[in-house]
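Message: A physicist's question: would you kindly supply an amino acid chain plus fold tokens?
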Amino acid sequence: MKFSSAISDAESTDAALDACLAVSGESGIAADVAFVFFTAHHAADAANILEKLWLKLDPQVMLGCSAEGVIGGEQEIEREPGLVVMIGQLPGVSLHPFHIGTNAWQELLNDHDALRQRIGGGETRAILGFGDPFTTPTNQFLAALDAATPAAPLIGGMASSARQPGQNLLIRNEQMLDAGFVGVSLSGAVEVQTIVSQGCRPVGRSMVITKGQQNVIEQLGGKPALVALKEMIDSLPPADKELLSHGLLVGRVISEYRDTFGRGDFLVRNLTGVDQNSGAIAITDYVRVGQTIQFHVRDAHSADEDLTLMLETQAYGPPAAGALMFSCNGRGTNMFSQKSHDIEAARRAMPATPVAGFFAAGEIGPIGGKNFIHGHTASVALLRPESR
């Protein structure tokens, strides 16, 4: 299994394509799969990108989308012309490309057998995919996918080059699309490891919801939620209290079958409001009595620490053959003081692994064995040949 990643910041689409194709050609890889991501600066020439890559690389599967920024090689390109191409040679791996258009959602969300067949059947090891945020019912899709293929993680992101429907571009093989969701399912001799760095860390202690409904937490540990929140804040050291100026988040434990909880155990969501009279708090997630939550904080330091710690595991064992990285468009220089933060963290941890990806308008990746859409997250898929 081999991968090669090439990136170009050339303003000319032809020049960017030629630069990426030159690197791909020098790699000596016979492309089974090709991924391409490009900024809005190249959108007018997307048909040229599609045709040239399809003819020159001759892959079994080609997948991609337009984005606000792209990631590859050793750099991140934001708000400037950018094109990245990754090719992979995957012996013994079956690839099944798919597209779900706007007219197909109603049937597939309600028919798990039909959804399973659309994405590639029951032997799927993992799915890589990209969607248009305006025409993809993401939460419903991910819930249906969990039911249809519970053993298959979905890693990817939402196209981010447009601010209104019809302007994002998706690529599936020789097709250029402006709506829905495109993806490829992988089966056979492949292992896909996922890393989902939500860019924050827990503070205080975990608490159990003792009263709540819909997205409102009314009581924590038998106390009004706001009282429990204030007690938690009072117990924090000064440095953590300062981070509250960046906002407070709520992490909901996905799997309750543990004595303790740490990074990777929580699905992190925003706290959206408080009711001073009732003492209730509202979050951007559904809650139920008996769930465990813990408050979280996020800033550049926490995000750097979280991603670095989650990538550290790559120092042990053989390196991944290739990696796809999908970072929130709220990260990059919107969060960090230096450019190319996430790709540099990946290169430090995985110097032998080619990486490519883009800045997404929502990142997709599993937490606790279930697929979710995230924000301010770096979601990574690491691909290796199946171990014997």
Notes: The first helix runs from residue 13 to 27. The mean pLDDT is 93. The chain is about 25% helix and 40% strand.
